[in-house]
Amino acid sequence: MTLSAEDRCAIAELISMHGHLFDGGELDRLDELFTADVVYDVTDFGQEPLTGVAAVREAALALGESNPVGHHVTNIVLTEIVDGQVHARSKGIGINADGTTGSVTYEDTITRGDQGWRISYRKVLARRAPLGGK
Hints:
Elements: H1 5-23, E1 34-41, E2 50-51, H2 53-63, E3 70-80, E4 85-95, E5 101-113, E6 116-127
Parallel strand pairs: 1-6
Antiparallel strand pairs: 1-2, 3-4, 4-5, 5-6
């Protein structure tokens, strides 16, 4: 499978939509971002992976005021896989209400379905040390 320029643009916009939906509290629209059976892997934060859109929504609501006020995604790199799937790697910057920040790497599997491109798997890796240190 060769990704067209249109596919690359659609996938980049999909990944960018994450911050807009979460920051705007539009959690009822997460099906525009994720497949129904998405696995949202937050084990790097000591949590169990979340399975399904409802679980992702509930986790965001449970965080409440601890959610970042701004999610920013940069440095999107796409790699074609097979069977209508694409691997996406991007950087995330979170801005908290108190002005502190955090950085993560998103490792996504993007799947093309009947409704277009959606994230079917996301692993969130915390960046805690420079130069790839742990």
